[in-house]
Specification:
With 529 residues, the protein is of the alpha+beta class. It is 32% helix and 16% strand. Among the domains are: 140 residues, no CATH class; 71 residues, no CATH class; 66 residues, no CATH class.
Length: 529
């Protein structure tokens, strides 16, 4: 609906005219052309790697503070520190990112012999990883005041606040969509909500402002009615969410904001217009006072694509839209399927509808990207689900920033897809600046507690494969410990088929019948003994 209104003696008057035809004083008609902010650092990022883009949002300071609070919490909880570092927290994030690329039914499956993933299991032991998951912390429980605990997210607030600051550091795009974001969660929490129209019906609700590219600039966790005694705002609770999400947009730059009828109201459009922010959104009829329009039955009589100026368009169902910068003209045509005639027909489409459809999907695009390569952890601490989701969003924002830079620096070069970008981020987090885990006893250090001895993994292949009698050819190499003998014996021979690992695990070869190799293999075994 193109709702344009002006005030005469504080009385709202609705005029049935095009926006361009309305007579308003010249000083009250500023340009709607977007004034782009000067983006600094694009040239400096010409040699950035995916890891550096990710560290733009998840900084070393955030990791250092997380490691410090984790050690403190482990002392408060168990009486001894886990002695973790920021580098080890980085490895945990890298392992989580790799788990999202290769998803399995449980965390332990990444270390099991049949399904182990080297990008995960070679970084740290399973027990160490699970231990860190139980004690990762972000806030000192003993130093928080009672007023700070009124915030239901006080345990995660330091991380959320700093991550939000890093997101806001990036210059915003022209068009932004404000919508709800659901973080899936089915456990017990006072912040859990039920939304039947969402793909994930149970979870935590977030307000988000995302650009057309899917870059999340601002967000906030919905905590319900924060102050029930406060007077109701004229824009409503959802309108307050839009005002909060757009409060970080620079005023007077002619940014365009899009939202659905859950948020839209006429006072909201007025508030944003006063700050030089333009708005387009669907709106409910009960939020338009003194605006008489054709009802849905009248529009249906006029046929599909019919519209009433202010604009109430009939498609399959009447849609009401409101705008402060775009009108009906130019009216375009789109191809749609007609169920009655069983053919495609051309349907008129106003410019406001085309603009809304083009720029409204930023948050939906972010939801789609975040669900592609995201591993679902289980935890008793409900706020950890929000933390893992913010890590996933940080990867997506890093990828979007990389694509923006590539478009400016190398427009002819096709940017790497999200899957490869995420894989490079995960590999860099687990390997950059970290020492490789070596077999044997760890180096002695007065600050570190010795690790307990671990059970040696069995490298034998399934018995069905060993005894199938097909393509089991012996290969002679440097002797290794025999995987067949129960004693501490060695052998120079291993099977070409059964050696399905990269580190050449040697096994004793059963005698081959009628091949002439039986005596050679027997002699090899005797020498080993």
């Amino acid at each position: 609906m193109i709702n344009f209104k002006y005030c005469v003696k504080e009385v709202e008057i609705w005029k049935k005219e095009q926006i361009a035809q309305l007579r308003i004083e010249p000083q009250d008609t500023p340009s709607i052309d977007f004034i782009a902010s000067v983006e600094e650092g694009t040239e400096d990022r010409c040699d950035w790697t995916p890891y550096m883009y990710f560290k733009q949002f998840v900084t070393d300071e955030m990791l250092e503070e997380t490691a410090e609070q984790t050690n403190l919490y482990s002392v408060q909880k168990e009486g001894k520190s886990v002695n973790t570092t920021a580098k080890e927290i980085e490895q945990v994030l890298g392992m989580y990112i790799h788990m999202g690329l290769v998803q399995m039914s449980s965390v332990r499956a990444y270390w099991e012999m049949e399904t182990r993933l080297p990008a995960v299991c070679h970084v740290m032991s399973r027990d160490r990883f699970l231990k860190l998951l139980t004690v990762i912390h972000f806030q000192d429980n003993l130093s928080v005041s009672d007023d700070a605990k009124k915030d239901k997210l006080w345990k995660l607030r330091p991380w959320l606040q700093k991550l939000r600051e890093q997101f806001l550091y990036i210059p915003p795009e022209e068009s932004h969509a404000v919508d709800e974001i659901m973080v899936p969660f089915k456990g017990k929490s006072h912040l859990r909500v039920y939304m039947p129209a969402k793909p994930h019906q149970w979870g935590f609700k977030m307000w988000g402002r995302a650009g057309q590219s899917g870059f999340l600039y601002d967000f906030d966790i919905c905590q319900g009615a924060e102050n029930p005694d406060r007077e109701k705002s004229e824009v409503g609770v959802t309108g307050e969410a839009v005002l909060k999400m757009t409060s970080t947009l620079p005023a007077g730059k002619n940014h365009k904001v899009f939202a659905d009828n859950y948020f839209t109201s006429v006072p909201l459009v007025q508030h944003l217009k006063e700050r030089g922010i333009h708005y387009v959104g669907t709106i409910r009829m009960n939020r338009m006072k003194h605006c008489t329009m054709m009802d849905e039955k009248e529009l249906k009589k006029n046929g599909r694509g019919s519209m009433d100026l202010r604009v109430n368009q009939e498609n399959n169902k009447a849609v009401n839209l409101i705008s402060s910068f775009v009108g009906i003209e130019p009216v375009g045509n789109v191809k749609r399927w007609d169920c009655k005639s069983k053919t495609h027909i051309m349907v008129p489409r106003p410019a406001i509808v085309e603009t809304y459809n083009k720029f409204m999907g930023g948050v939906d695009l972010l939801d789609m990207l975040s669900a592609l390569y995201k591993f679902s952890f289980r935890s008793r601490r409900w706020y950890m689900y929000i933390w893992w989701h913010t890590v996933t969003v940080a990867v997506i924002n890093a990828w979007n920033l990389y694509r923006r830079d590539q478009k400016k620096l190398n427009p002819k070069k096709k940017p790497m897809p999200l899957r490869r970008f995420q894989a490079l981020v995960g590999t860099s987090l687990t390997s950059t600046g970290k020492a490789k885990i070596r077999c044997g006893r760890p180096l002695s250090s007065p600050e570190e507690t010795p690790t307990p001895p671990r059970k040696r993994l069995s490298c034998s292949v399934p018995l069905d494969v060993r005894r199938d009698g097909i393509d089991h050819f012996p290969i002679w190499e440097t002797r290794q410990r025999c995987k067949h003998c129960t004693g501490n014996h060695f052998s120079h021979v291993y099977c070409e088929k059964c050696n399905n690992n990269n580190n050449n695990n040697f096994i004793y070869i059963a005698p081959f019948k009628n091949t002439g190799l039986q005596s050679a293999l027997t002699n090899s075994k005797n020498k080993a003994n």
